[in-house]
Structure to design on (71 residues):
């Protein structure tokens, strides 16, 4: 997402330049992404799904609700 250059004048937001803060946020994001990838690979392997042809989350309540709402 891009932010127009005039946004600094409308709503200035102070930022941190602390390397520790950047590292912490980056590490949390990496851990979350790795956990999601492991979860998805385990679900694919356990249910013997083809991620290119099959819906991975077809058995979830949220998936069923979205499908029902869009019929």
């Amino acid at each position: 997402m891009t932010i127009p250059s005039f946004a600094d004048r409308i709503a200035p937001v102070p930022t941190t330049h602390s390397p520790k803060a950047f590292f912490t946020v980056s590490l949390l994001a990496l851990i979350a992404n790795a956990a999601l990838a492991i979860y998805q690979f385990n679900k694919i392997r356990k249910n013997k799904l083809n991620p290119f042809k099959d819906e991975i989350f077809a058995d979830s309540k949220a998936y069923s609700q979205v499908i029902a709402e869009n019929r």
Observations:
- The mean pLDDT is 89.
- Residues 17 and 59 are 44 Å apart (CA to CA).
- The chain is about 60% helix and 0% strand.
- Residues 18-69 form one domain.
